Each structure stands twice: as C-alpha cells, then as structure tokens.
Amino acid sequence: MKPKIFIDGEHGTTGLQIRTRLAGRTDLDILSIPEAERRNNTMRAERLHEADLAILCLPDDGARQALELLDGSNSTRVIDTSTANRINPEWAYGFAEMTAGQADRIASARLVANPGCYPTGAIALIRPLVEAGILPKDYPVTVNAVSGYTGGGKAMIAQMENPGDPDPINAPHFLYGLTLTHKHVPEMQLHGLLDRAPLFAPSVGRFAQGMIVQVPLHLADLTKAPSPDDIHFALAGHFAGQDIVEVVSLAEGAELSRIDPTELVGQDTMKLYVFANAKTGLVNLVAVLDNLGKGASGAAVQNMDLMLGTRH
C-alpha cells in the first residue's frame, strides 16, 4: 500500500513547491483538500488522521493548531516547516547533513522540524567548525544573508510583484530584522552549538528565489589560529560521502569574482565556499542555496523520503 501524504497548507508558497516536487511520484498517495476548504478544520482533521505522514506548511500558530487537530495521535508522522518546533528537543531537526547520525535520527522520528532557509546555510558553515574544535563556542559569530523574496510567502510576493498592493515594496534590496531578534536566531545558536547568540543581519533582494549566507571570521581569534586550508579541510571532511552539500575547492573559489544568489534556483542542493585573505588573516564562509529548495520544500521532501525509507 502506498504511503498517504497530506500537505496541510498545500496552497501556500512552500506547499506548492512540495506539490511540484511530488507531482511525478507514483509511489505516494497524495491527500488533498480544495483551496476553498483550506480553513475547514473538520476536513483538515480527517486528512491529518488519514495520512501516514503530514507535512505542515503553515505559520507557527497554524502548525500548532494542526497538532491539536491530531489530538495526540501517534499514528501520523509529521514534518513541520514552521519555526514552531525547531528548538523543541522532542522533535528531530531536519537537516540530514548537519552532523553524523542526523539522517538516521530523522528516519526513525515521528516528529521532524524542517530547518529554516537562513539557518540551513549558517549551521552548515558553523557547526562543522565547532565540532572540529576550530570555532570556539563563545566566538562572536556574525551571520549576514540575503534571500529571494519568496521567503516571505504570498504576502511579500504580492508586495514585491504587485504595484497596487496596499504596502508595496519598491526597493531593489532591503534589510530587516533590525531589532536583532529574528526568529531564526535561537535555531542557529542551538544547532550551531554556540554559547552566544549570533548577530544575524538578514536582507531581501528583488529576485524570487535564491540565497547567500555569509559567516566572516578572524583566523587569529579561532582555536590554534587555523589556516584557510584547515577551515576548508574541516568543512570538506564533515560533508564527505553525500551528494547534497558541496564544499567548493579553494582553487575554484579563488577564480571567482562574484557569487550569484540564484545559482542553485530549482535545485535542492547547497554549495559552501571558503574565501580567504592571507595578508589580513580573514576568511569569509559562504553558503549558496535556493531558499525554497534545500532551504524549505526540497528539504521537506528529503526528510519525507528518509522517514518513508524511499529515495528519489
């Protein structure tokens, strides 16, 4: 019998991307409700209980409501793409490449919290260095990032694309999270194994999909003052043996004059770079990904396949 999958919130940005990825899958039975009934809680509850696995593509409160509709049922497995459960110890964190054994934890879990797009890039750069003893846990980490505007969901898409929107955004690029209390910070700190909250400066550009995440470091302030080769070796070793996260060679990175945030649009992979200046002793760690790919919908499908024991 085919596993039954219900995407609660399938008509939103993330849900639509997941539906697109599952469109050709003949090994799954996709449950659905009409868009006009998306707030029909009786129908939602029926689908949630009927499903073998539910993917929640909802705001935090909507995700919590879906779990209430499940009413303690242990039969339906859940992937939550909201921020509601990403630091909840009862939920497996859905970044399979994050650390050794994480894919197995996801595969065996009933409850999986899908990572945020910004944290996926940041944690991929930070955690391997902490685990390798290179980046001190109390280092004052700074994370700078720019995302495509689809990360803001339907509301921001309308603001960026519709001049008649009540609150249109006309800027080619804008910074937000100005209070330095962005909802992704606790997630970055916990899963990045940091003792101090990182300073996170997110921004949005006038492009639909794509993302660049940067973590600049002073080599002299790291444990044993490592070289750029040491940094790259730690990252490459951490992500060896899988095909989702690519650590670009130092030589290839040195040939680049610019980084395009849209490089991986439509793909569910991620690239990591180490850029260094030997004279100043500075390095800039860079992650490139599709904010709706490895940063959202692609990660949810990857986690679903791990939980179901399938691979496509």
Tell me what the structure shows.
It is a single chain. Helix content is 32%, strand content 21%. The model has no long low-confidence stretch (mean pLDDT 96). The protein is globular, with a radius of gyration of 20 Å. Strand 11, helix 9 and strand 12 (270-277) form a beta-alpha-beta unit. It has 10 helices and 13 strands. It is an alpha/beta fold and 312 residues long.
Please describe the topology of this protein:
Blueprint: E1 4-8, H1 13-22, E2 29-31, H2 41-50, E3 53-56, H3 60-70, E4 77-80, E5 92-93, H4 102-108, E6 111-113, H5 117-131, E7 142-148, H6 153-161, E8 173-175, H7 185-191, E9 199-205, E10 211-218, H8 228-238, E11 245-247, H9 250-254, E12 270-277, E13 282-289, H10 293-308
Parallel strand pairs: 1-2, 1-3, 3-4, 4-6, 5-6, 7-9, 11-12
Antiparallel strand pairs: 7-10, 8-9, 10-13, 12-13
